[in-house]
Specification:
The complex is a heterodimer of chains A (248) and B (283). Chain A is mostly helical. Chain A is built from ten helices and two strands, in the order ααββαααααααα. The longest helix of chain A has 31 residues. In chain B, α3 packs across α4. Chain B starts with a strand and ends in a 6-residue tail after the last helix. The chains are: A mainly alpha (248), B alpha/beta (283). Chains A and B meet through α1 and α4 of A and α2 and α3 of B.
């Protein structure tokens, strides 16, 4: 436990010192919310645009922080030999993984709070109708997308390419799932793709707890899809993740 | 009791034998050098001992443990300097030492270790601002911060300029004074000669000679007698330099001629090493 907190405190220190990561992971969703919130000022399907976008960017933020952010960190550390070096210390892999995941959870929680503050102060957005459900959605989002992030890290080979690869996944996924606005007018082929993406279902759950005041468990089908994606990511990681850099 | 025991260690990658039956022992408190050209199998052997790689065959014991299971007790007591590993570039020298100190039950004092590896002036500098040599010192400091009994150094000075090598050697010598057991791999003969109590020369996955650096030369009895006759160089290789020299000089005295530029030389360690690792003289 002491070692977990020790590692967590250093994970946080490293994250906030890394300007690139802090801007890309933490500031970018907030920036998009500020931009899109200024463009859509009315209502979307009878709901204030500020609320719809807040839910959308909350979902994008979860994918960006836990999937993209984590994959970038893990691939970078693996290829630099940092993970390999840790293997011969008494720090256990489980404790290390727990510290990295908790650190991601801390970052996304702060981001969610920042989204609420930005929305509430600037765009007069609503506060969550179900606070406990909203908090649960933070954990659910980090768990699902971190599972996928670790799986992606196991498949991505080079530290140079990892940012590009994860963004090619995350940005189209966020667009198709409706993070940046309603998808009602999208061609049916694109909607069909959206129907299998985890972010689509995550946004359904988020809108439920945030706007309707639903329980986190109100949509078991959506929940099952989200969990299945997370488990798929972990299954890939269990088979393919290595602590060793690729042979040079 | 030996710190490291390796018996008939074998390892293949994709059908290529990287280690073909390697055996050696390292005593406690000894600085042991694994010397050989690139690709000889040094790093494979060391990474099996560190617990990174599995072995195909053979017995391995590191501080009484099987490194294949990499138990925590073993990880508490070893320090590792890898050929390529980066520590967080955004942390300071002191923070990286504190981070690693937190992993061990009985770490050394962080500031003492920083002093020991000569980074006191860089204590508060970010890792990314350090030079290559300073980063290597940082690697060593981090390897020592858990107060290990056994330290693995994989090619600790590759790519260093001569001054940086000298100072790295000083540091490695100081490990001996601390009573640490050290397993060092290197492809530099002079490094093994300067630092190691004993050396195993490894070539193509096999150990071809083990002994103190001086013994490696002593094991080869061949001597060279060189002189010039009518301006032409004559070289006589012999296992009996006393007798051959006596005959040569007796002959010359009888003829009343001088053996110009007469010298008797023993092969240097470098000659022996090059002979041992020469592909042509493969066993």
């Amino acid at each position: 436990m002491t070692m977990l907190l020790h590692q967590l405190s250093f994970e946080q220190r490293v994250f906030w010192r890394s300007k690139e990561a802090a801007v890309f992971v933490f500031v970018f969703p907030l920036l998009l919310y500020a931009l899109l919130g200024s463009v859509y000022s009315d209502e979307i399907d009878g709901v204030p645009a500020a609320d719809v976008l807040l839910a959308g960017l909350f979902g994008y933020g979860a994918a960006n922080t836990a999937f993209a952010g984590l994959a970038i960190i893990l691939v970078g550390r693996r290829e630099a030999g940092t993970l390999k070096r840790l293997r011969t210390t008494p720090l256990s892999p489980a404790t290390y993984a727990a510290a990295v995941l908790l650190s991601t959870l801390v970052i996304f929680t702060l981001q969610a709070v920042a989204l609420l503050v930005l929305g509430g102060v600037v765009f007069d957005a609503s506060m969550p109708a179900n606070w406990a459900g909203f908090a649960g959605a933070i954990v659910l989002g980090v768990a699902c997308f971190a599972g996928l992030g670790i799986g992606a890290a196991a498949l991505i080979r080079s530290a140079e390419g990892v940012s590009a690869v994860v963004n090619v996944v995350v940005l189209p996924m966020a667009f198709l799932s409706g993070s940046f606005g309603p998808t009602r007018d999208y061609p049916s082929a694109l909607q069909a793709v959206a129907d299998v993406l985890p972010l689509t279902y995550f946004l359904d759950v988020v809108e439920g707890v945030y706007l309707e005041g639903d329980s986190l468990f109100a949509q078991p089908g959506a929940l099952a899809v989200i969990v299945a994606w997370g488990v798929l990511g972990l299954a890939v990681a269990a088979r393919r993740f290595s602590w060793m850099p690729r042979e040079r | 009791m030996s710190a490291i025991v390796v018996r008939d260690l074998r390892k293949s990658y994709d059908g290529i034998e990287a280690l073909r039956g390697v055996s050696f022992e390292v005593a406690r408190g000894e600085v042991f050098g694994l010397l050989g050209p690139n690709g000889a199998g040094k790093t494979t052997a060391v990474e099996i001992l560190e617990g990174y790689r599995s072995r195909d065959e053979g017995e391995v014991s590191v501080l009484g443990h099987d490194p294949g299971h990499a138990p925590r007790d073993l990880r508490e007591r070893i320090g590792v300097v890898l050929q390529h590993s980066e520590l967080s570039p955004l942390l300071t020298v002191r923070e990286v030492h504190r981070l690693f100190a937190g992993y061990y039950e009985r770490p050394r004092d962080v500031d003492d270790v920083i002093e020991l590896v000569g980074l006191a002036e860089k204590r508060d500098a970010r890792v990314r601002t350090l030079s290559g040599g300073q980063k290597r010192r940082l690697d060593l400091g981090v390897a020592l911060v858990g107060d290990p009994d056994l330290v693995f150094l994989d090619e600790p000075t590759t790519g260093f300029d001569p001054a940086a090598r000298r100072s790295a050697w000083e540091m490695i010598r100081s490990l001996r004074e601390l009573g640490k057991t050290v397993l060092l791999t290197t492809h530099y003969l002079d490094e093994a000669q300067q630092l190691a109590d004993r050396v195993a020369v490894i070539r193509a996955g096999q150990i071809v000679r083990t002994g103190a650096p001086a013994e490696l030369v002593g094991g080869s009895r061949t001597a060279e007698i060189r002189f010039r006759r009518n301006g032409e160089l004559v070289v006589v290789e012999t296992d009996e330099p006393t007798r051959v020299l006596n005959e040569l000089t007796a002959e010359a005295l009888a003829d009343g001629v001088e053996l110009e530029r007469l010298e008797v030389r023993r092969p240097t360690l470098e000659d022996v090493y090059l002979e041992l690792v020469d592909e042509e003289s493969a066993p």
